[in-house]
Structure formats: C-alpha cells, structure tokens
Amino acid sequence: MPAGLITGGTTGIGRATAELLHSRGYQVAVTGQNPGSLARARRELPGDVLVVRSDARVLADTDDLVATVSERFGSLDLLFLNAGIFHPAPVGDVTEKSFDEQVGVNFKGQYFTLQKALPLMRDGGSIVFTVGIGARRGSPGGTVGAATRGALLAMVPSLALELAPRRIRVNAVSPGATETPLFDKLGVSPSGRDAMRTNIPFERFGSSREVAEVVAFLASDAAGYVTGQDVVVAGGYGLGV
C-alpha cells in the first residue's frame, strides 16, 4: 500500500489531497498547527489517517514527525510539501517577526522536512511542492510570501537532478485563486472576490479538489517521466496579458 506525507494537510488543498489519496488506497499522514483544524481533521478524516501536530519551523518537531511516520508506514511514496502561511503587507510595514515566520514555515520548514524525510522515500517516489502563481506574477503586499514560495520553485530543478539517480521525481504545483479557508483568514471581501474573478478566463475560483487531482497525478505512475516541472492550476489566469 503506497504511503504519503502531506504537510499543512488539515485544511484546504492539503486536506483535499489527503482525502483523495486515501480514497485511492494510500496510507496518509497530515500535519498542522492550529488546534481547531487538528481537532476537526482527527474527527472528520478517515480514522486511519495519521494526524500529527508539527510546527515546520521547529526541527525537533520535524524529527518527531519523521520518526512517527517511519514507525507507522516504514517508507514513503509521496512527500507533499504543502504547509505555508501568508501575511500580506506593503514592504514598509513588514516586521521582522512576520518575515521570520514566513521564511520559517514556507522555506526553512519545507527544506528541512524534505531533508529529514528523504531517507524514508522509496526509489521511484514523488516529491511535490506547493508554490502558487504569486511566485511568478506579482501582487501588492506579497513580497515575502512570493519570495519564500519562489525559493521552493528555484530548488525544484536542482533537486530533480540530484534525486534522478533514485528515480525520485520532484515537481511543483502552483494554484491560482482557490476556494480555501485562506480567503477568510485574509479577510477578502465579496467585492474583492468578484474583482479577482474578472481576471480569470474561466471566471471562477478553483477548488481544492482540482489541485489535489494534479498532485495525485504527479504522485502516480502516469507522471513517471515528469520531473523538474511546475504545473500551474489557475483557470488560465495570466494568459493573454
């Protein structure tokens, strides 16, 4: 039975991916930090999904996570590095605390989770990063978030080459505007959402399930010859501009 670890897997895209992979026969572990989201995930996800509280910024937490996953699954076929936070602010308003938090979760945390989980990865497995279109297409107030996600994207080609001898594929998925709890956390108004839709050729937001389907593809044998790529899932946003 294949096994997958999903960081940031208690809500949104991560949770949708956990549900999808579990329905297709995967053993699944998900991580999160928010007590409420962790409780809901433990209550609502299938009982055999492993839900682990883990702060990506704390390497001791990552060590414990990897040890727990190793004990439960033995090895991994998929590592989906999806955890991330976003604190939009103009450059002049960015604080050192906010900067460090975003770098710590979005870049440092994902990097060292990869490093520590890599010994569990089976040859021929798949590693997928969540990046997002913000790393390529700017938005006011998004400098730190874009930079941290862009750092992940910059690593993908080098990692793909480094892990090619083990036939481990390394790719990224870049969602556009997607209906997740992040909208509510950021306080995006209904009028703001309407304005965003006008820039999307499909004239709607994506769903977490649609992004999860792409991750599942990248994890599957159907993507056995795909590595070093960034798959954009954004309803055509940015085309023709």
UniProtKB/TrEMBL annotation:
Domain of life according to the entry: Bacteria
Report keywords, A-Z: Oxidoreductase
Concerning InterPro entries, the annotation shows:
NAD(P)-bd_dom_sf, SDR_DHRS6-like, SDR_fam
Q: Which Pfam families match?
A: adh_short_C2 (PF13561)
Tell whether Oxidoreductase is among the UniProt keywords.
yes
Q: Does the keyword Oxidoreductase apply?
A: yes
Task: Tell me which family the UniProt entry assigns to this protein.
Answer: Belongs to the short-chain dehydrogenases/reductases (SDR) family.
Query: Which PANTHER family does the UniProt entry name for this protein?
Result: DIHYDROANTICAPSIN 7-DEHYDROGENASE (PTHR43477:SF1)
Q: What is this protein called?
A: SDR family oxidoreductase
Q: Which organism is it from?
A: Kribbella lupini
